[in-house]
Design brief:
The protein starts with 6 loop residues before the first strand and ends with a strand. By secondary structure, the chain is α+β, with helices and mostly antiparallel strands. It has one domain: Tetrahydropterin Synthase, Chain A, CATH 3.30.479. Helix content is 20%, strand content 38%.
Length: 168
């Protein structure tokens, strides 16, 4: 029988691991193609390699700090997709953005966070956040006993997305 390693988690709903941001999704139904905002909460789970069981997985304090850093970076931003069929021009003060469905926006650069995704869906956002967590874990240096990160991104109170990112 295969053994599974243990895991630890932190839930941002209880310590300020939250952010508010605007986004839109080209050709989305139910008004999702209009610029709109959400309040997001972030929870993370770190999975341990089975062979390192009973070893400290990772510091809760450090994991909480990672969640806060990511949330602070996204808070009060307009999240725009830099990939897919979207086109943008930027200068030091503003960004001119034309979405895949030909909606045009001009926004102050300080208000925007460009994400390397095709569209800013909750699924793409959760996966992108997972990649950011992996990068920060590798910067921390003590991640050899981990196999992956599970992200739960709550979009409001009643819905959200789970994503898993492997540590390779």
């Amino acid at each position: 029988m295969d053994k599974e390693g243990a895991s630890i988690f932190v839930d941002g709903r209880f310590f300020g691991g939250s952010f508010s941001a605007s986004r839109r999704v080209s050709r989305a139904p139910h008004g999702g193609d209009r610029l709109h905002g959400h309040s997001y909460d972030l929870a993370l789970k770190l999975r341990q390699k089975p062979e390192t069981q009973n070893r400290l997985i990772f510091s809760f304090e450090e994991l909480t700090a990672i969640v806060r850093t990511i949330c602070d970076d996204l808070n009060n931003k307009v999240l725009l997709a830099s990939g897919g069929e979207n086109v943008y021009k930027e200068d030091s003060r503003s960004i001119e953005y034309v979405s895949a469905d030909n909606k045009r926006y001009v926004l102050p650069m300080d208000d925007v966070k460009l994400l390397p995704v095709e569209e800013v869906t909750v699924e793409a956002l959760a996966s992108w956040i997972g990649q950011q967590v992996v990068t920060k874990l590798k910067e921390h240096g003590d991640y050899e006993n981990l196999v992956g990160v599970e992200i739960t991104l709550y979009e409001g109170r009643q819905r959200g997305c789970n994503a898993t990112v492997a540590l390779t």
